[in-house]
């Protein structure tokens, strides 16, 4: 007796398969793919849209306003669900597809799941060149979808309808793999989407996926324990992998029990609360002075679930050159960085085994006392930075302090790129775990508002996303304000208007250059004395949101209460100082001209050379 089959087009089979995948979140069985963000064009509307329309009750489709921003919303959704549930994003061919390349880069850098389904040109090439096709004279098989190869963990192009039988399970496995997690891309040529095939019915059987929890080898655990027991001044760096593993509570207790100060990466912030007794704040360039002080004396660094990006390591200057590393990571590539003792495994599983193997070992009490004193001093600095002042224009720190005090325990703060990540990472006092999303792995301007939409979808009725965005990022990508109004997913957006790209102006002028092409006043514009000003509140109102322009911190406090009571997305704007920044953190390795006629640049070059002399060289 032969295998029972069903005749479907490739597009129909793809959608039916996606609807058959399930996962478990907090003991509840839920669809693995919660929905689809889609903008349709000739590359995906005739076939894929036809298939999606018929399953709206199982797999809802949400129309974005821009392919990049809708894919960013999908990525934020996956982050909010801690990689346990995810979204699909689909586009047509050509510009619709390439618009999503940037979003794929965000997902790849941050190790976040999103399934990208892009229309492609015709495999049979009969109508070539088709609308939006980019032709390669020497290699006609290349299409713009090949751009995704550099920013995808899994990449495929379907050239026969039977190929989805093997491709889709591999894509899903990649999306759920703790080591390989990232964007999965599948190109869908227009002529193959329409082709029917007799698919085995069992291909569409419901599947319950579980994220694997890999175990490290005993030899790696033993080596890590032996080194940790020699430490007099150890330090824990908690990365995003701790949160995705669900290891935050265990690590928090491990740090207390073993007397080891605990710092966080940008992706890891939010695993513990601001007042955790072992916590000393975020690490690195945008970190706290407390974390910098403790890291500069560390002899053994226990790095868990982090890829050790330069903003975490201060471009590898914040540790003694002879410090030893123990890298716990599901990804072998990350675990073996910087001559570390590599422990390849899941954070929760490894911490359990380390804790058992350490026996009664506890670090000397002086280490934690040093860390707690440094952290207390840092909190005094924060209090001073956030206190009201007589300044005409509020600082980022003051604005963040107001928003932080207003936010409810379940409200998630969202920001990315520019000056706000550093200011938010330093100033935001997390009161409840997993209520903090700063995208800084790819530092993608435009993530903020789109991500707010994704978080609003993920949170349901539990909390309201609060998006902090600079005027530069707002101007770059704001159309999902309209998306949230259409879909009923409320968020609060606070636009900090500092007159341009403030943090890059800070870097530019800090390296001895005059302000140029960053702040609006320093750009090539008609009226430098009185440049036109964007009324962000009225702009948001034009998209159906509520809006209010604030001038002072008290205005902002009142407006936030008003925004909370509103029934839809609300945008508040407030002037922010482009020249006042929260102190603290490590320096940064950047390119500075070796030759310049400006003495200020020459001085910056000398300072950079002195800084680089402190670098730990990795192998």
What does this structure look like?
By secondary structure, this protein is α/β, with parallel strands linked by helices. It folds into 4 domains: 5-208, Thiamin diphosphate (ThDP)-binding fold, Pyr/PP domains (Rossmann fold); 218-376, 3-Layer(aba) Sandwich (Rossmann fold), CATH 3.40.50; 387-575, Rossmann fold; 589-619. 37% of the residues lie in helices and 18% in strands. It contains 24 helices and 23 strands. The strands form 5 sheets. A 6-stranded parallel beta sheet has the order 5-4-6-7-9-8, sandwiched between helices. The chain has a 6-stranded parallel beta sheet with strand order 14-13-12-15-16-17, sandwiched between helices. Strands 19-18-20-21-23-22 form a 6-stranded parallel beta sheet, sandwiched between helices. Strand 22, helix 23 (553-565) and strand 23 (570-575) form a beta-alpha-beta unit. Helix 3 (67-80) packs parallel to helix 5 and helix 10 runs parallel beside helix 14. The chain is globular, with a radius of gyration of 25 Å. The termini are far apart. The mean pLDDT is 96.
Summarize the structure.
This protein is an alpha/beta fold.
Task: List descriptors.
619 residues; alpha/beta; Rossmann fold; 4 domains; 6-stranded parallel beta sheet; 24 helices; 23 strands
Number of strands: 23
CATH class of the largest domain: Alpha Beta
| Overall number of domains | 4
> Which structural class best describes the helix and strand composition?
alpha/beta
Net shape: globular
- Average pLDDT, to the nearest integer? 96
| Percent range of helical residues | 25-40%
Helix count equals 24
Distance between the termini: 59 Å
What is the CATH architecture assignment of the largest domain? 3-Layer(aba) Sandwich
Strand content: 15-25%
* CATH superfamily (homologous) name of the largest domain: Thiamin diphosphate (ThDP)-binding fold, Pyr/PP domains
Strand order of the largest sheet: 5-4-6-7-9-8
Low-confidence regions: none
Which fold name corresponds to the CATH topology of the largest domain?
A: Rossmann fold
Major sheet summary line: 6 strands, parallel
The whole-angstrom Rg is: 25 Å
């Amino acid at each position: 007796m032969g295998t029972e089959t069903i005749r479907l087009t490739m597009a129909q089979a793809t959608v039916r398969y996606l609807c058959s995948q399930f996962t478990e979140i907090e003991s509840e069985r839920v669809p693995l793919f919660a929905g689809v963000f889609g903008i349709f064009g000739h590359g995906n509307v005739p076939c894929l849209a036809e298939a999606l329309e018929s399953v709206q009750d199982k797999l809802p489709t949400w129309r974005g306003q821009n392919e990049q921003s809708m894919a960013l919303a999908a990525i934020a959704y996956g982050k909010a669900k801690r990689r346990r549930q995810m979204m699909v994003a689909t586009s047509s061919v050509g510009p619709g597809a390439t618009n999503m390349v940037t979003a794929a880069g965000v997902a790849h850098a941050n190790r976040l799941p999103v399934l990208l389904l892009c229309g492609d040109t015709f495999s049979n090439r009969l109508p070539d060149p088709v609308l939006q096709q980019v032709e390669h004279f020497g290699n006609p098989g290349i299409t713009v979808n090949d751009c995704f190869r550099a920013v995808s963990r899994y990449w495929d192009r379907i050239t026969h309808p039977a190929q989805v039988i093997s491709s889709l399970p591999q894509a899903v496995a990649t999306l759920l793999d703790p080591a390989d997690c990232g964007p999965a891309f599948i190109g869908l040529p227009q002529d193959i989407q329409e082709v029917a095939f007799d698919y085995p019915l069992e291909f569409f059987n419901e599947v319950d996926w579980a994220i694997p929890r890999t175990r490290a080898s005993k030899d790696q655990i033993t080596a890590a324990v032996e080194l940790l027991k020699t430490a007099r001044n150890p330090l824990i760096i908690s990365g995003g992998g701790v949160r995705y593993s669900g290891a935050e509570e265990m690590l928090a207790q491990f740090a207390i029990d073993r007397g080891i100060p605990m710092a966080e990466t940008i992706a890891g912030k939010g695993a513990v609360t601001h007042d955790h007794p072992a916590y000393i704040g975020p690490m690195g360039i945008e970190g706290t002075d407390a974390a910098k002080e403790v890291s500069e004396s560390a002899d053994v660094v226990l790095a868990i679930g982090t890829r050790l990006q330069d903003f975490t390591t201060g471009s590898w200057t914040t540790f003694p050159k002879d410090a030893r590393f123990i890298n716990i990571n599901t990804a072998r590539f990350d675990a073996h960085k910087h001559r570390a003792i590599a422990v390849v495994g899941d954070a929760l599983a490894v911490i359990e085994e380390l804790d058992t193997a350490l026996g009664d070992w506890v670090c000397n009490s002086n280490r934690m006392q040093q860390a707690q004193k440094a952290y207390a001093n840092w909190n005094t600095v924060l209090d001073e930075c956030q206190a009201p002042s007589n300044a005409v224009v509020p600082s980022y720190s003051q604005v963040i302090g107001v928003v932080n005090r207003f936010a409810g325990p379940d409200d998630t703060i969202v920001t990315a790129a520019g000056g706000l990540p550093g200011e938010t990472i330093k100033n935001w006092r997390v009161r409840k775990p997993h209520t903090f999303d700063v995208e800084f792995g790819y530092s993608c301007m435009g993530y903020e508002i789109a991500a707010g939409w994704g978080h609003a979808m993920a949170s349901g009725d539990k909390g309201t996303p609060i998006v902090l965005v600079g005027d530069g990022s707002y101007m770059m990508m704001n159309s999902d304000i309209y998306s949230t109004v259409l879909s009923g997913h409320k968020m609060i957006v606070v636009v900090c208007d500092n007159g341009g790209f403030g943090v890059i102006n800070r870097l530019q002028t800090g390296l001895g250059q005059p302000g140029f092409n960053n702040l609006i006043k320093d750009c090539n514009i008609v009226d430098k004395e009185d440049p036109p000003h964007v009324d962000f509140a009225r702009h948001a109102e034009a998209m159906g949101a509520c809006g209010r322009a604030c001038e002072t911190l008290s205005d902002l406090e009142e407006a936030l209460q008003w925004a909370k009571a509103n029934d839809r997305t609300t945008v508040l704007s407030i002037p922010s100082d482009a020249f006042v920044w929260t102190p603290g953190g490590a320096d940064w390795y950047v390119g500075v001209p070796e030759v310049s006629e400006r003495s200020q640049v020459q001085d910056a070059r000398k300072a950079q050379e002195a800084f680089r002399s402190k670098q730990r060289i990795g192998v």
